[in-house]
Amino acid sequence: MELRADLIIVGAGMVGSALALALKDSGLDILLIDGSPLSVKPFDQATPFEPRVSALSAASQRILERLGAWSGVTARRSSPYGEMQVWDGSGTGQIHFSAASVHAEVLGHIVENRVIQDALLEPLHDSCIGLLPGARLERLRRSGDDWLLTLVDGRELRTPLVVAADGANSAVRRLAGCATREWDYLHHAIVTSVRCAEPHQRTAWQRFTDDGPLAFLPLERDGEHWCSIVWSATPLEAERLMALDDTAFCAELGRAFEWRLGEVLGADPRLCIPLRQRHAKRYVEEGLVLIGDAAHTIHPLAGQGVNLGFLDAAVLAEVLLHAVGRGERLAEERVLGRYERRRMPHNLAMMAAMEGFERLFQANPLPLRWLRNSGLKWVDGMPEAKALFVRQALGLSGDLPELARA
After folding, report:
1. Which residues contact residue 272 at a Cβ distance below 8 angstroms, ignoring those fewer than 6 apart?
2. Strands (DSSP E) along 268-376, which ranges?
């Protein structure tokens, strides 16, 4: 038998779940499907940190608050930070950012992805949204004015509108034949949680090394001595670092970080993730929308990936809710194009900025090294320029959707 819905969201990760919650009062028959069990795990404060974390901006916090999920985040574990220190390990340039420069309390929160996910799933389980766990997509084809989705277990789903929120390796994007522009950064990111000898001071730290950026992001558990690290390195160097035992790895990490937080005393199990930039040439077609990592992936050096995804979800929800109010057919490309026109320029600008930073700090010629060190010192002495950067990172400016506005 076919199961029919007005809208099917494929992928119940952070971005897909946020979209479903934003549309829960729309009157639409919505089905959220995912290959996972979609269960909420009991949380214990003594639980080790998940290796993958997100740096949530103020805009993302506002979105989660209005979706009824932020209280679930704070009830579990989140780590606010109010300062950021960035420096060039190959020179003398450095820059300091502070939330106080824009009269804000924090620059953001470091939160484990699993914590965000469970905080979103809780209100979803209490909503009228249909949840279909253990649903893996095998085929996607047009059937009249609808899309017909065939799952691995043979079940078939029918809908006029599919939203792909199924991540960087999106099955929907692949099966629908959506074209992308992509390239390999030729770097891998090592991620884990580490315990340091000195407190992190609720500061996000980032050093640009000769191999790639190294970030220490503050975590809260048993004091202020835990950090999540994201260490970008060439594939060969990443392979070497992953092969080290914990003692040797911690020594290498402390040396690369210039011992800013003293010795690295211990590390949790490590993950190594290939870094690849990807951007869909179009976010929409008739009856199909891409959001979050299914539409774009970005270098993790600024931690903006999930923030862009939450803004995608908020803008798409706003577009669809307005269309419902006007009695428009949601699957029309004319309607969906409003979302693409608002989000694509912003995402492309952020991706271009991150690409420029990444290339500048990987450049070895002496003139470019002088330029980046001089540039860091110059900007650090300009409070107005730094405040503008902070406001942009917080999500306090630009074309914000209603869910993200102060």
Report:
1. 188, 189, 190, 191, 238, 239, 242
2. 271-280, 284-285, 288-290, 296-297
Q: If you count them, how many residues does the chain have?
A: 406
- The residue whose two tokens read 């891409």 is 290
- Measured over the CA atoms of residue 95, residue 232, residue 351 and residue 84, the dihedral's sign is negative
> pLDDT (tens digit, 9 = 90+) per residue, 291-334?
999 999 987 766 678 999 999 999 999 999 999 999 999 999 99
Q: Is 328 exposed, middle or buried (0-12, 13-18, 19+ CB in 10 A)?
A: middle
User: What does the pLDDT read at residue 222?
Assistant: 75
- Alpha-carbon distance of 225 to 230, in angstroms, equals 16
Residue 240 has pLDDT above 60, yes or no: yes
pTM: 0.94
Distance separating alpha carbons of residues 98 and 91, to the nearest angstrom: 22
Residue 97 forms beta bridges with which residues? 84
DSSP state of 292: G
- Structure letter (DSSP) for residue 298: -
DSSP letter string over 147-198? Answer: EEEEETTS-EEEES-EEE-S-TT-HHHHHHT--EEEEEEEEEEEEEEEEESS
In tens, the pLDDT along 101-110 reads 888 899 999 9
Q: Given the structure tokens 């490590």, which residue do they identify?
A: 270
Q: Distance between CA atoms of 342 and 136, rounded to whole angstroms?
A: 30
Strand ranges (DSSP E) for 197-238? 203-208, 213-219, 226-233
Contact 262, 198 (CB under 8 A): yes
The secondary element (H helix, E strand) that includes residue 56 is strand 53-56
